[in-house]
Every structure is written in C-alpha cells, then in structure tokens.
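TICKET: design request
STATUS: open
ATTACHED STRUCTURE:
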C-alpha cells in the first residue's frame, strides 16, 4: 500500500553568497518576487500537493524565515486599526489552518544530502517531498510537487523532476540517465564535465523520496565538493530500479542566479496588478 505524502523538507541553510550584501542578514529564500518571497511560493506549492507538515532545515541568520510564517499579532492589529482588513487577513493567513511548521538547525554546511538527513527524525518512515526554493516554478497545471506526488502514488518509487538543458550548462546540474520508455532513472551523476554528461536531462529542485534514502545517506561516502550529495544517494536508489523521472511542466527560473532572478520578476510583473 502506497503511503500518502504529508511532509515536505525545505533546505534553507545556505549562505546565499551570490546575493551579498543583501543576504548578509536576510535569508536568500526571503528574496521577493514582487511582494512574495521565494520560500512562500515553494510552501504554497507543497500545500497544494497535500502537504501538511513543513520541515525547514535552517542555519545561522535564518530566524527571519520562522518569523515570516509565524503570527504577527502586532502588525495585524495595526492594519485593522487602519481599516486595512484585506492586508490584515493576508498577514493572518500566510499559512492555512492545520499546517505545522518544524524548524531544524543544520549545524554544519555539509551539503544537500546532509540537510535532508537532518530531517530524518521528523520524517520518520514515510515518503516525503523536498523543495529547493531557489527554483522558482510557474506551473502550467496544479503544481510540480503535485505532479511528483501523483506519479509516486502509481508506483511507490522516488520521483525526480527533470528538464532538458542544452549546451555546457548541463555541467551545473545532477544529470539523469533515463530509460525513456518507462521513465525509469538508471543513474544520476552530479555536475559532470560537459563532454562526459550522460544526457541533457537535468534533475532540478523538486523531489519525492522514499524513506530508505536516509539509510543510504547515513552510510554514504563524502562526494564532490567535500559534501554529502543527495544525487549520490538517489543514484544508489536508481541502481536498484527505485527512481522515476517526471518531465518538468513549468516555467523555471533559477533564482540563485541574479540574471534569472531579475527575469523571474520581469515575467511575473507582466501580469501583476499594480
């Protein structure tokens, strides 16, 4: 029997050095697309997929993320006194009722795999989603995470969101080897040299993972950049025929990149009501 996916992990402990000095004190995940921070878009995507437990893997100077999703009674009261009811309701309802937030400190920056491993005690023996807020996705349907969840329910296997990347930029990603006839991932290589890339299919920042990933991560050797790489653990699952790929059905902006962050704002502003 396939278990429903109720929990999502948000690795948000990164230093955001590409956006200094603004990220010296402010988490990069709170960088806004017009008037809504990146992390809120990712959270709303997870909730739309049926997630009710949000697990944030945080680091130093990330308290503002917790504050963003917490109640701010003082602000709400001030807005109501000014008869700005719509804004007050918006502040009050940043998260729907019934949604739980859990914050876990990642004491060392040991890679994405280590960040996911930090969530093990809260996730337990359940499948779960992972969302990287840097990947700003404007979906053509109900949400990228929901696509992964629905495909997981059919097979019970881990799911990767993948997209085609042409040219040398493929070396910036985890690259998927795929049996296209069955969507089966047969391998995942982290940031290969362009000439050695096994395909032009890149794994991007949305995953649904089965809980056996934790044992793999615990016993995994340190990978590239001296970090515990999530891609290495997923590759181990793939070698056992337990990973599938779902083609990305969304406009994607890598908002860890200044140019694409600006492009994302331009794209959203084209239909934003000012």
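STATUS: resolved
RESOLUTION: sequence designed for all positions
ATTACHED SEQUENCE:
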């Amino acid at each position: 029997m396939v278990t429903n996916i109720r929990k999502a992990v948000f690795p948000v402990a990164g230093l955001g050095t590409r956006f200094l000095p603004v990220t010296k004190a402010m988490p990069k995940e709170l960088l806004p697309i017009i008037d809504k921070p990146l992390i809120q878009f990712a959270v709303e995507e997870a909730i739309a997929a049926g997630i009710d437990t949000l697990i944030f893997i945080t680091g130093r100077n990330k308290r503002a993320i917790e504050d963003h999703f917490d109640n701010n009674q003082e602000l709400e009261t001030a807005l109501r006194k000014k008869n700005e009811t719509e804004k007050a309701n918006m502040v009050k309802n940043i998260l729907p009722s019934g949604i739980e937030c859990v914050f876990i400190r990642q004491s060392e920056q040991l890679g994405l795999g280590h960040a996911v491993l930090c969530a093990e005690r809260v996730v337990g023996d359940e499948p779960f989603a992972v969302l990287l807020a840097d990947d700003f996705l404007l979906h053509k349907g109900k949400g990228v995470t929901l696509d992964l969840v629905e495909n997981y329910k059919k097979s019970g296997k881990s799911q990767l969101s993948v997209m085609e990347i042409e040219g040398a930029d493929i070396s910036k990603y985890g690259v998927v080897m795929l049996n296209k006839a069955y969507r089966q991932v047969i391998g995942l290589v982290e940031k290969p040299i362009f000439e050695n890339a096994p395909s032009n299919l890149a794994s991007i920042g949305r995953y649904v993972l089965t809980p056996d990933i934790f044992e793999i991560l615990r016993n995994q050797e340190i990978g590239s950049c001296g970090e515990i790489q999530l891609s290495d653990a997923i590759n181990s699952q793939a070698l056992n025929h337990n990973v599938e790929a779902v083609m990305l059905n969304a406009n994607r902006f890598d908002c860890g990149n200044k140019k694409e962050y600006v492009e994302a704002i331009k794209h959203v502003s084209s239909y934003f009501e000012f």
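CLOSING REMARK: The chain has a mean pLDDT of 89. The CA atoms of residues 92 and 161 lie 32 Å apart.
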